[in-house]
Amino acid sequence: MLNTIFFWIFTLLGWLAGLLFLLFAYFFIQDLRQTKSAIRRNFPLIGRLRYFLEGQGAYFRQYFLSHEREEMPFNRATRSWVYRKSKGLQGMIGFGSTYDLNEAGAVIFVNSPYPKLEEERQPAHSLVIGEYCNTPFYAQQIVNISGMSYGALSKRAVQALSLGAEKSGAWLNTGEGGMSDYHREANADLIFQIGTAKFGVRDEKGRLSPQKLKEVAKVEQVRAFEIKLSQGAKPGKGGMLPGIKVNAEIARIRGIPIGQDVMSPNRHPEIASPDDLLDMIAQIRDITGKPVGFKTVIGNERYPESFAEAILRRGVDSAPDFITIDGGEGGSGAAPQILADHVGLSLTEALPMVDNIFHEAGLRDRIRLIASGKLVTADQVAWALCVGADFTVTGRGFLFSLGCIQSMQCHLDTCPTGITTQNPRLQKGLDIINKSERVANYATQINQDLDVIAHSCGLSCAHDFNRNHVRIVQKPGKSISLNELYPLPKTNKSRFLKT
Ligand SMILES: Cc1cc2nc3c(=O)[nH]c(=O)nc-3n(C[C@H](O)[C@H](O)[C@H](O)COP(=O)(O)O)c2cc1C
């Protein structure tokens, strides 16, 4: 009798194990064959478990784990917003907001008693950069893709960004690694970045090569050039690409040995003053006929003031066509933590400072301001536009749209989503077409949501924001208008010409 019972129990368990095995084998093959999730494709079954646990996370966190607005650099609420927008979903919530309107620094937009009716709404129009150049650039979108090189990013990631940029009308900055074929996968507008090592436009001694620059400028989709002075995550350090990411193709594009760490110079050797910078801007604009600007981190007022002074002394025609202000909170493919944590002003402080200085110098209409530094949701972008930015760019926002899960491994070549790795096995998980659609959805929807805030403030479109449209909470129950916090100065050129 006992023998029969054991027999049936073991037979049943055997069947169960067999069924489970078949089920897991089915899930395994399904994970491998699907193209929507890079994590599941690269890590069949285990990746599925991650998504299952993430789904249950809301219940666990509610009782004993972190709050959804606690994680750094980007909390779950922010990331979820980007994921939803990338999937083309609406940003609806039920019950109420978890955003704390009483916390110091909270951003509150000033709603109008008479918001725009649906039929009065207008999408933001395109804006020209480099109006006085031979070939001005008419930028279609307000939010665009920040510089991230092929090398820091995988080729599939760059291809997906290129396709998504073309579809949405956002521009794609090449980053400092030069222009690869992957940046030209689609016909998106490109801004060619010239880093301190001048990859793509350097001569054999590492100086700017006018011939190579001319060749790049002939590519119609290259709309403008950005000289990179510094980036928020590592002011004072040049680009760093760990040797493990330098494969044969990247080595060929950059003209460097395979497998060796790439350390770009800490600055452009020929730029050590505002006049040197203006000389290089003039040189590149003369050679290319296209708009030229630069990207920088701000330390204090002195540097933008001395730059404004140099422009006024040399004449307004010497001004750059745009300046990209990168906040100290900016991201990087690889950066020393000590610089990332402690050097360079945050965008919150740097953007109003620079905008005010160029207003006072009477140069603000001549120079477009582009802002970056954790501007990944529409409210943060709207804040930057209220302060004075004309455009914003984001790197990590678009990485999230590609499926980044903030595993913080960009410098290790082990990115599990195939975005910041040159490992072909991990890259396999990233489906270019699927992710390009997410890139395009995110770009389109963040730009649309900007207009939603603008219409609520009674404005026709997002270009009309100014400092009266936003209030910043100082302490619980006390917010003040950004206009009071950072009043716009009157034009006073003589102050600069005296210094
Ligand atoms: C993986 C990665 C690679 C980057 N590569 C570059 C680069 O080549 N050139 C550059 O100027 N900035 C680079 N950045 C910085 C971004 O362009 C951007 O300035 C910064 O991350 C701030 O924007 P965000 O907070 O929206 O990401 C990189 C950032 C990341 C995350």
Please characterize this protein's 3D structure:
This protein is an alpha/beta fold and 499 residues long. The protein has helices spanning 2-33, 38-42, 46-64, 76-86, 155-168, 210-218, 248-254, 274-288, 302-314, 337-342, 347-360, 378-387, 396-401, 424-427, 432-456, 482-485, 493-498, and strands at 107-109, 127-129, 137-139, 143-145, 172-173, 190-194, 222-228, 240-241, 262-263, 292-296, 322-326, 368-372, 391-394, 470-475, 478-481. Strand 10, helix 9 and strand 11 form a beta-alpha-beta unit. The model has no long low-confidence stretch (mean pLDDT 93). It binds flavin mononucleotide. Flavin mononucleotide binds next to helix 13.
Features:
single chain; 499 residues; alpha/beta; 8-stranded parallel β-sheet; 3-stranded antiparallel β-sheet; binds flavin mononucleotide
How is the topology of this model organized?
Layout: H1 2-33, H2 38-42, H3 46-64, H4 76-86, E1 107-109, E2 127-129, E3 137-139, E4 143-145, H5 155-168, E5 172-173, E6 190-194, H6 210-218, E7 222-228, E8 240-241, H7 248-254, E9 262-263, H8 274-288, E10 292-296, H9 302-314, E11 322-326, H10 337-342, H11 347-360, E12 368-372, H12 378-387, E13 391-394, H13 396-401, H14 424-427, H15 432-456, E14 470-475, E15 478-481, H16 482-485, H17 493-498
Parallel strand pairs: 4-13, 5-6, 6-7, 7-10, 10-11, 11-12, 12-13
Antiparallel strand pairs: 1-14, 2-3, 8-9, 14-15
Bound molecules: flavin mononucleotide.
